[in-house]
Design goal:
It is built from 15 helices and four strands. By secondary structure, it is mainly alpha-helical. The chain has a two-stranded antiparallel ribbon with strand order 1-2.
Length: 352
């Protein structure tokens, strides 16, 4: 290949996004129309955009526009942010542990955040304080403590032991669900309903107030991990190689732990436990574009948004007029795929 052709290809790759990213953006645009335009009375794509200029869509009354702006839009925004953050934190956790089986839910980070959030709910009703006001920060503390604990226990001679990581995660998940069960046993009826909401995951509680409360934490996590994608690429080569390239690996790992805990804690506080997104979505992105985080991370974030929007639509439509918890949908979709990935890794087909 000539030098001119090589330069042309490099410039093309630089200025034109990957084809999978373009496809994902188009898919998100279609799902956005469905998510905002769909409701109990059916689907109307014009309603999805009528709120932008209601004076041009006189067939819709003020109540319909209000339903879109106060119910469907916050729910759509919540699905977008949670899908993006869960997929991105899953990618970062796998880079931190340099293992494709690491995930905030598998290694106990999500359940650790849920335990503290559930404890705040139960204590809030017992001691009459506004637990909802502090839930994102309480969940962050739980996620941070578990992330740091799992990482330190699994670390051996500068390397993260995968078997130890998974076993500690399994133990923490079992302990967390036991504690949630214990708190549920002593909780009153109102707290019990909230606890069930947290353990199964749902976007049904979306509103602008909750979003504005947790959005700073989600944005800090997303922006911070985005700017760390190049150092994380170096970390994937190995700790000694990253240090040779001038990366302070100890600082980098601490930054990743903080940002993952922020993102997972705020996500759990808003929606409860939504599993498998952080595990499966990065795998799909890696299979599509390879392991380089410059392309793989943004693709993973877009795929996470698609999975959450699609799962939310299924949760709202499968048992209408009732609604399934979204955690059930993601588990039904993600668990078979996770088993497939384990079987593939068993035969040496899955790389870090």
């Amino acid at each position: 290949m000539s030098t001119f052709a090589s330069i042309t290809l490099q410039m093309t790759a630089r200025f034109f996004p990957n084809k999978w990213i373009i496809a994902c953006v188009l898919c998100i645009a279609v799902l956005s129309l469905i998510s905002i335009g769909f409701g109990p009375a059916g689907w109307d794509w014009q309603l999805a955009i009528a709120w932008l200029a209601p004076e041009y869509f006189t067939q819709f009354d003020a109540l319909q526009i209000n339903v879109v702006t106060q119910i469907r839009l916050p729910r759509f925004m919540l699905a977008v942010m949670i899908g993006l953050v869960l997929a991105q934190t899953g990618t970062a956790t796998q880079a931190l542990c340099r293992n494709p089986l690491a995930d905030p839910s598998i290694i106990g980070i999500s359940s650790g955040a849920a335990v503290v959030a559930v404890a705040f709910i139960a204590l809030g009703t017992q001691f009459d304080f506004q637990a909802n006001k502090y839930l994102p920060y309480a969940a962050f503390i739980g996620a941070f403590v578990v992330t740091l604990f799992v990482y330190l226990v699994a670390k051996q001679a500068g390397q993260v032991n995968v078997t130890t990581l998974i076993l500690v995660g399994v133990a923490i998940n079992a302990l967390a669900f036991a504690l949630i069960g214990l708190l549920s046993f002593y909780a009153d009826d109102s707290a019990l309903r909230l606890i069930n909401y947290w353990t199964m995951g749902s976007l049904g509680g979306a509103n602008w107030a909750n979003l504005s409360q947790a959005m700073p934490l989600l944005l800090i996590s997303a922006i911070g991990l985005w700017y760390l994608k190049e150092p994380m690429n170096c970390l994937l080569l190995g700790e000694s190689q990253a240090q040779y390239l001038g990366i302070n690996t100890h600082t980098l790992k601490f930054q990743i732990i903080i940002l993952v805990a922020l993102g997972v804690g705020a996500s759990v506080a808003l929606t409860g436990l939504i599993g498998f997104v952080g595990l499966v979505v990065p795998h799909i992105a890696r299979l599509m574009v390879g392991p380089h985080l410059r392309i793989m991370m943004p693709l993973s974030m877009l795929l996470g948004i698609i999975v959450l929007l699609l799962s939310d639509w299924l949760a709202r439509t499968l048992v209408m007029p009732a609604e399934l918890p979204i955690g059930i949908i993601t588990a039904l979709l993600g668990a078979p795929l996770f088993i497939y990935l384990i079987l593939k890794s068993k035969h040496g087909g899955l790389g870090a």
